[in-house]
Write a structure and sequence with these properties.
binds magnesium ion, alpha/beta, Rossmann fold, Four Helix Bundle (Hemerythrin (Met), subunit A), binds guanosine-5'-triphosphate, 6-stranded mixed beta sheet, Gyrase A, domain 2, 13 strands, about 45% helix
Length: about 475
Protein backbone atom coordinates (compact mmCIF):
# COMPACT_ATOMS: atom_id res chain seq x y z
CA UNK A 1 0.00 0.00 0.00
CA UNK A 2 2.90 2.33 -0.62
CA UNK A 3 2.77 5.42 -2.79
CA UNK A 4 -0.82 6.05 -1.81
CA UNK A 5 -2.01 9.33 -3.15
CA UNK A 6 -3.66 11.16 -0.31
CA UNK A 7 -5.11 13.87 -2.51
CA UNK A 8 -8.70 14.25 -3.67
CA UNK A 9 -7.95 12.47 -6.91
CA UNK A 10 -10.57 10.18 -8.29
CA UNK A 11 -9.14 6.69 -8.68
CA UNK A 12 -10.10 3.81 -10.92
CA UNK A 13 -9.14 0.15 -10.97
CA UNK A 14 -10.25 -3.31 -12.01
CA UNK A 15 -11.82 -5.01 -8.99
CA UNK A 16 -12.19 -8.51 -10.35
CA UNK A 17 -9.28 -10.94 -10.79
CA UNK A 18 -7.42 -11.04 -14.11
CA UNK A 19 -8.62 -13.58 -16.64
CA UNK A 20 -11.88 -14.47 -18.31
CA UNK A 21 -15.03 -14.49 -16.17
CA UNK A 22 -18.75 -13.88 -16.38
CA UNK A 23 -18.31 -10.23 -15.53
CA UNK A 24 -15.42 -7.87 -14.87
CA UNK A 25 -15.84 -4.81 -12.66
CA UNK A 26 -14.21 -1.42 -13.05
CA UNK A 27 -14.53 0.59 -9.87
CA UNK A 28 -14.19 4.38 -9.74
CA UNK A 29 -14.01 6.28 -6.45
CA UNK A 30 -13.63 9.93 -5.56
CA UNK A 31 -15.26 13.32 -5.88
CA UNK A 32 -15.33 13.12 -9.69
CA UNK A 33 -16.42 9.48 -9.94
CA UNK A 34 -19.80 10.39 -11.40
CA UNK A 35 -18.51 12.91 -13.93
CA UNK A 36 -15.65 10.64 -15.02
CA UNK A 37 -18.06 7.74 -15.54
CA UNK A 38 -20.56 9.94 -17.38
CA UNK A 39 -17.94 10.85 -20.02
CA UNK A 40 -17.68 7.21 -21.10
CA UNK A 41 -21.25 5.99 -20.45
CA UNK A 42 -24.13 6.19 -22.87
CA UNK A 43 -27.63 5.62 -21.57
CA UNK A 44 -30.95 7.46 -21.47
CA UNK A 45 -30.27 7.85 -17.73
CA UNK A 46 -27.86 10.51 -16.52
CA UNK A 47 -25.68 9.18 -13.70
CA UNK A 48 -25.95 12.45 -11.77
CA UNK A 49 -29.70 11.98 -11.47
CA UNK A 50 -29.53 8.31 -10.46
CA UNK A 51 -30.36 7.74 -6.77
CA UNK A 52 -27.65 6.09 -4.68
CA UNK A 53 -27.59 2.27 -4.82
CA UNK A 54 -29.31 2.04 -8.19
CA UNK A 55 -28.22 0.44 -11.43
CA UNK A 56 -28.49 1.69 -15.00
CA UNK A 57 -28.14 -0.25 -18.24
CA UNK A 58 -26.10 1.28 -21.05
CA UNK A 59 -22.95 1.22 -23.14
CA UNK A 60 -19.34 2.18 -22.57
CA UNK A 61 -18.41 4.46 -25.44
CA UNK A 62 -14.99 5.69 -26.48
CA UNK A 63 -15.66 9.47 -26.44
CA UNK A 64 -12.95 10.08 -29.08
CA UNK A 65 -14.32 7.72 -31.73
CA UNK A 66 -17.89 7.19 -30.55
CA UNK A 67 -17.19 3.45 -30.77
CA UNK A 68 -19.17 1.09 -28.48
CA UNK A 69 -16.75 -0.78 -26.22
CA UNK A 70 -19.14 -2.90 -24.15
CA UNK A 71 -22.69 -3.33 -22.99
CA UNK A 72 -22.68 -2.75 -19.23
CA UNK A 73 -24.58 -2.33 -15.98
CA UNK A 74 -23.48 0.70 -14.02
CA UNK A 75 -24.18 1.19 -10.33
CA UNK A 76 -23.71 4.30 -8.26
CA UNK A 77 -23.09 4.51 -4.50
CA UNK A 78 -22.73 7.98 -3.13
CA UNK A 79 -20.44 8.84 -0.26
CA UNK A 80 -20.32 8.54 2.65
CA UNK A 81 -22.41 5.36 2.37
CA UNK A 82 -20.05 3.51 0.08
CA UNK A 83 -17.06 1.22 0.40
CA UNK A 84 -14.56 4.10 0.41
CA UNK A 85 -16.97 6.63 1.94
CA UNK A 86 -16.52 8.59 -1.32
CA UNK A 87 -18.73 8.59 -4.41
CA UNK A 88 -18.26 5.21 -6.05
CA UNK A 89 -19.32 4.08 -9.50
CA UNK A 90 -18.98 0.43 -10.46
CA UNK A 91 -19.19 -0.68 -14.06
CA UNK A 92 -20.04 -4.33 -14.65
CA UNK A 93 -18.56 -5.20 -18.02
CA UNK A 94 -18.78 -8.51 -19.81
CA UNK A 95 -15.92 -10.70 -18.64
CA UNK A 96 -12.74 -10.88 -20.64
CA UNK A 97 -9.67 -8.81 -20.15
CA UNK A 98 -10.06 -6.73 -23.29
CA UNK A 99 -13.31 -4.89 -22.56
CA UNK A 100 -12.53 -4.46 -18.89
CA UNK A 101 -9.08 -3.00 -19.47
CA UNK A 102 -10.40 -0.83 -22.31
CA UNK A 103 -13.08 0.54 -19.96
CA UNK A 104 -10.42 1.26 -17.33
CA UNK A 105 -8.26 2.99 -19.91
CA UNK A 106 -11.19 5.20 -20.96
CA UNK A 107 -11.89 6.08 -17.30
CA UNK A 108 -8.24 7.11 -16.91
CA UNK A 109 -8.41 9.22 -20.09
CA UNK A 110 -11.57 10.80 -18.69
CA UNK A 111 -9.70 12.09 -15.64
CA UNK A 112 -9.34 9.27 -13.09
CA UNK A 113 -5.92 8.08 -11.97
CA UNK A 114 -4.94 4.45 -11.63
CA UNK A 115 -5.62 3.11 -8.13
CA UNK A 116 -2.64 1.76 -6.20
CA UNK A 117 -2.96 -1.74 -4.72
CA UNK A 118 -5.25 -1.62 -1.70
CA UNK A 119 -6.06 2.02 -2.29
CA UNK A 120 -9.85 1.63 -2.18
CA UNK A 121 -9.54 0.03 1.25
CA UNK A 122 -6.91 2.55 2.32
CA UNK A 123 -9.35 5.32 1.46
CA UNK A 124 -12.04 3.65 3.55
CA UNK A 125 -9.58 3.76 6.45
CA UNK A 126 -8.41 7.32 5.83
CA UNK A 127 -12.00 8.46 5.54
CA UNK A 128 -12.69 6.90 8.94
CA UNK A 129 -15.16 4.28 7.74
CA UNK A 130 -13.09 1.35 8.98
CA UNK A 131 -10.15 0.99 11.36
CA UNK A 132 -6.83 -0.66 10.56
CA UNK A 133 -7.84 -4.13 11.80
CA UNK A 134 -10.83 -3.95 9.50
CA UNK A 135 -8.69 -2.86 6.56
CA UNK A 136 -6.42 -5.80 7.23
CA UNK A 137 -9.43 -8.07 7.52
CA UNK A 138 -10.51 -7.11 4.01
CA UNK A 139 -7.22 -8.47 2.76
CA UNK A 140 -7.66 -11.63 4.82
CA UNK A 141 -11.13 -12.20 3.41
CA UNK A 142 -9.78 -11.91 -0.10
CA UNK A 143 -6.99 -14.33 0.76
CA UNK A 144 -9.00 -16.68 2.99
CA UNK A 145 -8.33 -20.22 1.89
CA UNK A 146 -11.26 -21.85 3.70
CA UNK A 147 -14.63 -21.00 5.18
CA UNK A 148 -13.07 -21.09 8.66
CA UNK A 149 -10.44 -18.48 7.90
CA UNK A 150 -13.06 -16.45 6.05
CA UNK A 151 -15.29 -16.46 9.12
CA UNK A 152 -12.48 -15.17 11.33
CA UNK A 153 -11.65 -12.43 8.84
CA UNK A 154 -15.29 -11.39 8.63
CA UNK A 155 -15.51 -11.20 12.41
CA UNK A 156 -12.45 -8.96 12.38
CA UNK A 157 -13.96 -6.87 9.61
CA UNK A 158 -16.97 -6.20 11.76
CA UNK A 159 -14.64 -4.83 14.39
CA UNK A 160 -14.53 -7.77 16.81
CA UNK A 161 -10.91 -7.20 17.84
CA UNK A 162 -11.40 -3.46 18.12
CA UNK A 163 -14.47 -3.92 20.29
CA UNK A 164 -12.46 -6.17 22.54
CA UNK A 165 -9.59 -3.72 22.80
CA UNK A 166 -11.47 -0.42 23.23
CA UNK A 167 -12.34 -0.95 26.92
CA UNK A 168 -8.69 -1.80 27.54
CA UNK A 169 -7.62 1.41 25.83
CA UNK A 170 -10.06 3.38 28.00
CA UNK A 171 -8.81 1.76 31.17
CA UNK A 172 -5.22 2.46 30.17
CA UNK A 173 -5.98 6.09 29.37
CA UNK A 174 -7.54 6.51 32.80
CA UNK A 175 -4.56 4.91 34.60
CA UNK A 176 -2.23 7.06 32.53
CA UNK A 177 -4.16 10.18 33.47
CA UNK A 178 -4.00 9.36 37.17
CA UNK A 179 -0.26 8.89 37.09
CA UNK A 180 0.31 11.97 34.95
CA UNK A 181 -1.68 14.07 37.38
CA UNK A 182 0.97 13.25 40.01
CA UNK A 183 3.62 14.85 37.84
CA UNK A 184 1.65 18.09 37.71
CA UNK A 185 0.38 17.94 41.28
CA UNK A 186 3.09 16.21 43.26
CA UNK A 187 1.69 17.48 46.56
CA UNK A 188 -1.20 14.91 46.48
CA UNK A 189 1.02 11.84 46.41
CA UNK A 190 -0.59 8.49 45.61
CA UNK A 191 -1.25 6.64 48.86
CA UNK A 192 0.18 3.11 49.22
CA UNK A 193 -3.32 1.64 48.95
CA UNK A 194 -4.10 3.61 45.77
CA UNK A 195 -0.76 2.52 44.43
CA UNK A 196 -1.58 -1.14 44.93
CA UNK A 197 -4.98 -0.56 43.32
CA UNK A 198 -3.26 0.93 40.27
CA UNK A 199 -0.88 -2.02 40.18
CA UNK A 200 -3.80 -4.42 40.30
CA UNK A 201 -5.46 -2.65 37.37
CA UNK A 202 -2.23 -2.74 35.35
CA UNK A 203 -1.76 -6.44 36.06
CA UNK A 204 -5.26 -7.36 35.05
CA UNK A 205 -4.75 -5.60 31.71
CA UNK A 206 -1.53 -7.58 31.21
CA UNK A 207 -3.41 -10.83 31.92
CA UNK A 208 -6.14 -10.12 29.40
CA UNK A 209 -3.72 -8.92 26.72
CA UNK A 210 -1.60 -12.03 27.18
CA UNK A 211 -4.63 -14.25 26.69
CA UNK A 212 -5.42 -12.38 23.50
CA UNK A 213 -1.83 -12.67 22.31
CA UNK A 214 -1.83 -16.41 23.03
CA UNK A 215 -4.79 -16.84 20.73
CA UNK A 216 -2.45 -16.02 17.85
CA UNK A 217 -1.08 -19.56 17.64
CA UNK A 218 -4.66 -20.67 17.05
CA UNK A 219 -5.44 -17.76 14.74
CA UNK A 220 -2.35 -18.54 12.72
CA UNK A 221 -3.67 -22.03 12.05
CA UNK A 222 -6.64 -20.43 10.36
CA UNK A 223 -4.56 -17.97 8.43
CA UNK A 224 -1.67 -20.10 7.36
CA UNK A 225 -2.95 -23.58 7.99
CA UNK A 226 -1.83 -26.17 10.49
CA UNK A 227 1.51 -27.51 9.32
CA UNK A 228 1.40 -31.26 9.41
CA UNK A 229 4.09 -33.72 8.32
CA UNK A 230 3.41 -37.32 7.30
CA UNK A 231 6.36 -39.36 8.55
CA UNK A 232 7.26 -43.04 8.54
CA UNK A 233 9.69 -45.62 7.27
CA UNK A 234 9.65 -46.38 3.53
CA UNK A 235 6.67 -48.10 1.93
CA UNK A 236 4.20 -47.74 4.81
CA UNK A 237 1.84 -45.70 2.59
CA UNK A 238 2.68 -42.05 3.37
CA UNK A 239 2.23 -40.85 -0.19
CA UNK A 240 -0.89 -42.98 -0.56
CA UNK A 241 -2.27 -41.24 2.54
CA UNK A 242 -1.48 -37.78 1.11
CA UNK A 243 -3.23 -38.71 -2.14
CA UNK A 244 -6.23 -40.13 -0.28
CA UNK A 245 -6.59 -36.97 1.81
CA UNK A 246 -6.26 -34.80 -1.28
CA UNK A 247 -8.52 -37.11 -3.27
CA UNK A 248 -6.07 -36.93 -6.18
CA UNK A 249 -2.89 -38.61 -7.33
CA UNK A 250 -0.47 -35.92 -6.30
CA UNK A 251 2.46 -38.02 -5.06
CA UNK A 252 4.00 -40.99 -6.84
CA UNK A 253 3.11 -44.29 -5.20
CA UNK A 254 4.95 -47.55 -5.98
CA UNK A 255 5.47 -50.84 -4.22
CA UNK A 256 9.20 -50.00 -3.97
CA UNK A 257 10.52 -48.59 -0.71
CA UNK A 258 12.24 -45.24 -1.16
CA UNK A 259 9.87 -43.89 -3.83
CA UNK A 260 9.43 -40.39 -2.42
CA UNK A 261 12.72 -38.48 -2.53
CA UNK A 262 11.67 -34.96 -1.77
CA UNK A 263 9.05 -33.36 0.45
CA UNK A 264 5.73 -32.49 -1.21
CA UNK A 265 3.43 -29.90 0.35
CA UNK A 266 -0.28 -29.55 -0.34
CA UNK A 267 -3.21 -27.82 1.35
CA UNK A 268 -6.42 -29.54 2.40
CA UNK A 269 -9.52 -28.26 4.12
CA UNK A 270 -10.76 -30.07 7.22
CA UNK A 271 -14.09 -28.73 8.50
CA UNK A 272 -13.04 -25.29 7.35
CA UNK A 273 -9.61 -25.58 8.92
CA UNK A 274 -6.79 -25.21 6.43
CA UNK A 275 -4.14 -27.87 6.84
CA UNK A 276 -0.80 -27.79 5.05
CA UNK A 277 0.25 -31.35 4.71
CA UNK A 278 3.78 -32.46 3.83
CA UNK A 279 4.58 -35.89 2.46
CA UNK A 280 8.13 -36.89 3.30
CA UNK A 281 10.69 -39.42 2.13
CA UNK A 282 10.64 -42.64 4.14
CA UNK A 283 13.19 -42.65 6.93
CA UNK A 284 15.70 -45.52 7.09
CA UNK A 285 19.46 -46.07 6.98
CA UNK A 286 20.29 -44.24 3.72
CA UNK A 287 21.27 -46.11 0.61
CA UNK A 288 22.48 -43.41 -1.74
CA UNK A 289 23.00 -39.69 -1.88
CA UNK A 290 19.58 -38.62 -3.19
CA UNK A 291 17.80 -40.74 -0.62
CA UNK A 292 20.00 -39.45 2.21
CA UNK A 293 19.23 -35.89 1.16
CA UNK A 294 15.51 -36.76 1.09
CA UNK A 295 15.74 -38.23 4.59
CA UNK A 296 17.41 -35.16 6.00
CA UNK A 297 14.61 -33.07 4.48
CA UNK A 298 12.08 -35.39 6.11
CA UNK A 299 13.69 -34.80 9.49
CA UNK A 300 13.65 -31.05 8.90
CA UNK A 301 9.96 -31.23 7.90
CA UNK A 302 9.13 -33.17 11.09
CA UNK A 303 11.00 -30.58 13.11
CA UNK A 304 9.16 -27.68 11.46
CA UNK A 305 5.67 -29.22 11.66
CA UNK A 306 3.18 -28.40 14.43
CA UNK A 307 1.80 -31.91 14.16
CA UNK A 308 3.17 -35.18 12.80
CA UNK A 309 1.12 -38.03 11.44
CA UNK A 310 3.38 -41.02 12.12
CA UNK A 311 2.44 -43.79 9.69
CA UNK A 312 3.09 -47.49 10.32
CA UNK A 313 2.34 -50.49 8.14
CA UNK A 314 0.23 -52.59 10.48
CA UNK A 315 0.35 -55.58 8.13
CA UNK A 316 4.06 -56.21 8.66
CA UNK A 317 5.99 -56.72 11.88
CA UNK A 318 6.99 -53.66 13.86
CA UNK A 319 10.67 -53.07 13.01
CA UNK A 320 13.63 -51.14 14.42
CA UNK A 321 12.97 -48.61 11.63
CA UNK A 322 9.47 -48.04 13.04
CA UNK A 323 11.00 -47.60 16.44
CA UNK A 324 13.33 -44.97 14.95
CA UNK A 325 10.26 -43.02 13.75
CA UNK A 326 8.90 -42.91 17.29
CA UNK A 327 12.30 -41.65 18.44
CA UNK A 328 12.46 -39.02 15.68
CA UNK A 329 9.05 -37.67 16.67
CA UNK A 330 9.57 -37.77 20.43
CA UNK A 331 8.40 -34.55 22.03
CA UNK A 332 6.25 -33.55 19.02
CA UNK A 333 2.47 -33.66 18.90
CA UNK A 334 1.72 -36.79 16.94
CA UNK A 335 -1.16 -38.82 15.65
CA UNK A 336 -0.28 -42.48 15.07
CA UNK A 337 -1.84 -43.83 11.89
CA UNK A 338 -1.67 -47.61 11.55
CA UNK A 339 -2.12 -48.10 7.81
CA UNK A 340 -3.12 -51.02 5.56
CA UNK A 341 -6.01 -51.92 7.86
CA UNK A 342 -7.55 -53.70 4.86
CA UNK A 343 -4.97 -56.47 5.37
CA UNK A 344 -4.44 -58.79 8.31
CA UNK A 345 -2.79 -56.87 11.12
CA UNK A 346 0.56 -58.08 12.45
CA UNK A 347 0.18 -56.36 15.82
CA UNK A 348 -2.45 -54.65 17.92
CA UNK A 349 -2.90 -50.94 18.56
CA UNK A 350 -2.04 -51.55 22.23
CA UNK A 351 1.32 -52.90 21.19
CA UNK A 352 2.22 -49.67 19.38
CA UNK A 353 0.81 -47.53 22.19
CA UNK A 354 3.22 -49.32 24.53
CA UNK A 355 6.12 -48.64 22.19
CA UNK A 356 5.08 -45.00 21.98
CA UNK A 357 4.95 -44.65 25.75
CA UNK A 358 8.51 -45.95 26.04
CA UNK A 359 9.85 -42.86 24.26
CA UNK A 360 7.10 -40.31 24.98
CA UNK A 361 5.51 -39.28 28.20
CA UNK A 362 2.28 -37.87 26.76
CA UNK A 363 -0.69 -39.23 28.69
CA UNK A 364 -3.10 -39.49 25.82
CA UNK A 365 -2.12 -41.27 22.68
CA UNK A 366 -3.97 -40.42 19.52
CA UNK A 367 -4.09 -43.53 17.37
CA UNK A 368 -6.19 -44.30 14.31
CA UNK A 369 -6.39 -47.40 12.13
CA UNK A 370 -6.65 -46.44 8.48
CA UNK A 371 -6.44 -47.78 4.99
CA UNK A 372 -5.12 -45.32 2.46
CA UNK A 373 -6.16 -47.84 -0.16
CA UNK A 374 -9.86 -48.21 0.73
CA UNK A 375 -10.25 -44.90 2.57
CA UNK A 376 -11.40 -46.51 5.81
CA UNK A 377 -10.57 -44.57 8.96
CA UNK A 378 -9.72 -41.38 7.05
CA UNK A 379 -12.73 -39.52 8.48
CA UNK A 380 -11.65 -40.48 11.98
CA UNK A 381 -8.13 -39.30 11.18
CA UNK A 382 -9.50 -35.94 9.99
CA UNK A 383 -11.64 -35.60 13.11
CA UNK A 384 -8.63 -36.36 15.29
CA UNK A 385 -6.66 -33.71 13.45
CA UNK A 386 -9.45 -31.18 13.83
CA UNK A 387 -9.97 -31.77 17.53
CA UNK A 388 -6.22 -31.63 18.07
CA UNK A 389 -6.23 -28.01 16.87
CA UNK A 390 -9.42 -27.12 18.72
CA UNK A 391 -8.22 -28.79 21.91
CA UNK A 392 -4.88 -27.01 21.86
CA UNK A 393 -6.41 -23.57 21.57
CA UNK A 394 -7.41 -21.21 24.31
CA UNK A 395 -10.09 -19.83 22.07
CA UNK A 396 -12.90 -20.05 24.62
CA UNK A 397 -10.89 -18.09 27.17
CA UNK A 398 -11.37 -14.79 25.38
CA UNK A 399 -14.92 -15.05 24.11
CA UNK A 400 -13.87 -16.26 20.74
CA UNK A 401 -11.78 -13.23 19.82
CA UNK A 402 -8.80 -14.59 17.99
CA UNK A 403 -5.73 -12.68 16.88
CA UNK A 404 -4.88 -13.77 13.36
CA UNK A 405 -2.43 -11.08 12.40
CA UNK A 406 1.23 -11.02 13.43
CA UNK A 407 1.22 -7.22 13.54
CA UNK A 408 -1.55 -7.31 16.13
CA UNK A 409 0.18 -9.95 18.20
CA UNK A 410 3.44 -7.98 18.18
CA UNK A 411 1.59 -4.84 19.27
CA UNK A 412 -0.14 -6.75 22.08
CA UNK A 413 3.17 -8.17 23.29
CA UNK A 414 4.82 -4.75 23.19
CA UNK A 415 1.91 -3.33 25.17
CA UNK A 416 2.28 -6.02 27.84
CA UNK A 417 6.03 -5.50 28.06
CA UNK A 418 5.59 -1.75 28.55
CA UNK A 419 2.89 -2.37 31.16
CA UNK A 420 5.15 -4.74 33.08
CA UNK A 421 7.77 -2.00 33.14
CA UNK A 422 5.16 0.47 34.38
CA UNK A 423 4.23 -1.97 37.15
CA UNK A 424 7.87 -2.36 38.14
CA UNK A 425 8.59 1.36 38.30
CA UNK A 426 5.38 1.99 40.20
CA UNK A 427 6.21 -0.61 42.86
CA UNK A 428 9.83 0.57 43.03
CA UNK A 429 8.72 4.09 43.92
CA UNK A 430 10.46 5.50 40.85
CA UNK A 431 9.60 9.04 39.75
CA UNK A 432 6.10 9.17 38.23
CA UNK A 433 7.60 10.46 34.98
CA UNK A 434 9.08 7.01 34.38
CA UNK A 435 5.81 5.17 35.02
CA UNK A 436 3.97 7.67 32.86
CA UNK A 437 6.42 7.10 30.03
CA UNK A 438 5.93 3.32 30.22
CA UNK A 439 2.16 3.76 30.21
CA UNK A 440 2.43 6.03 27.18
CA UNK A 441 4.52 3.40 25.41
CA UNK A 442 1.87 0.82 26.24
CA UNK A 443 -0.91 3.02 24.86
CA UNK A 444 1.02 3.76 21.70
CA UNK A 445 1.67 0.08 21.10
CA UNK A 446 -1.97 -0.84 21.70
CA UNK A 447 -3.27 2.03 19.60
CA UNK A 448 -1.24 0.81 16.67
CA UNK A 449 -3.57 -2.15 16.37
CA UNK A 450 -6.50 -0.03 15.29
CA UNK A 451 -4.44 2.88 14.03
CA UNK A 452 -6.69 5.27 15.91
CA UNK A 453 -4.60 6.35 18.88
CA UNK A 454 -2.42 9.35 18.32
CA UNK A 455 -0.74 11.50 20.90
CA UNK A 456 -3.36 14.16 20.24
CA UNK A 457 -6.07 11.60 21.00
CA UNK A 458 -4.56 10.70 24.33
CA UNK A 459 -4.38 14.33 25.33
CA UNK A 460 -7.95 15.01 24.31
CA UNK A 461 -9.23 12.00 26.14
CA UNK A 462 -7.24 12.65 29.27
CA UNK A 463 -8.68 16.13 29.47
CA UNK A 464 -12.20 15.12 28.59
CA UNK A 465 -12.62 12.33 31.11
CA UNK A 466 -10.32 13.44 33.84
CA UNK A 467 -11.09 16.51 35.83
CA UNK A 468 -7.68 17.91 36.66
CA UNK A 469 -8.97 20.58 39.05
CA UNK A 470 -10.37 18.03 41.44
N1 LIG B 1 -3.13 -52.91 1.04
C1 LIG B 1 -2.77 -51.64 1.17
N2 LIG B 1 -1.70 -51.16 0.49
C2 LIG B 1 -1.35 -49.89 0.66
C3 LIG B 1 -2.07 -49.01 1.51
N3 LIG B 1 -1.46 -47.80 1.46
C4 LIG B 1 -0.43 -47.92 0.61
N4 LIG B 1 -0.35 -49.16 0.11
C5 LIG B 1 0.65 -49.70 -0.83
O1 LIG B 1 1.93 -49.61 -0.24
C6 LIG B 1 2.95 -49.32 -1.20
C7 LIG B 1 3.75 -48.10 -0.78
O2 LIG B 1 2.90 -46.96 -0.80
P1 LIG B 1 3.49 -45.46 -0.80
O3 LIG B 1 2.33 -44.56 -0.59
O4 LIG B 1 4.34 -45.24 -2.01
O5 LIG B 1 4.38 -45.53 0.48
P2 LIG B 1 5.38 -44.41 1.07
O6 LIG B 1 5.31 -44.51 2.53
O7 LIG B 1 5.07 -43.08 0.46
O8 LIG B 1 6.77 -44.94 0.56
P3 LIG B 1 8.14 -44.11 0.32
O9 LIG B 1 7.81 -42.91 -0.48
O10 LIG B 1 8.95 -45.10 -0.44
O11 LIG B 1 8.70 -43.83 1.65
C8 LIG B 1 2.20 -49.13 -2.52
O12 LIG B 1 2.27 -50.34 -3.24
C9 LIG B 1 0.77 -48.84 -2.08
O13 LIG B 1 -0.17 -49.21 -3.04
C10 LIG B 1 -3.20 -49.56 2.22
O14 LIG B 1 -3.89 -48.88 3.00
N5 LIG B 1 -3.47 -50.86 2.01
MG1 LIG C 1 6.18 -41.86 -0.67
Amino acid sequence: MSNINLSDDTIAGISTPPGVGGIGIVRISGGDAVSVAQKIFSSPKKIASMPSFTIAYGFIIDPETGEKVDEVLLSVMRGPKSYTAEDVVEINCHGGLLTVSKTLELAINAGAILAAPGEFTMRAFLNGRIDLTQAEAVLDIINAATSGSGRLAIEQLTGRLTQHISPVVNELVSICAEVEAQIDFPEDDISPSDRSLLLGRINSIVTSLNALSDSYSFGRFYREGLSTAIAGKPNVGKSSLLNALLKKDRAIVTHLPGTTRDTIEEAININGLPVRIVDTAGIREGRELAELEGISRSLAAIEAASLVIAVFDGSTAFSPEDEAILMATAGKDIIIAVNKADKTMAYSNDFIIDKYRQVNNHDTVKIVSISALTGSGLDTLKETLYSHVMGSSTVEAHEGVVVTNLRHKTALDRTSAALRNAGKSLSADSPYEITALDLRNALNALGQITGTITTGDILDRIFSDFCIGK
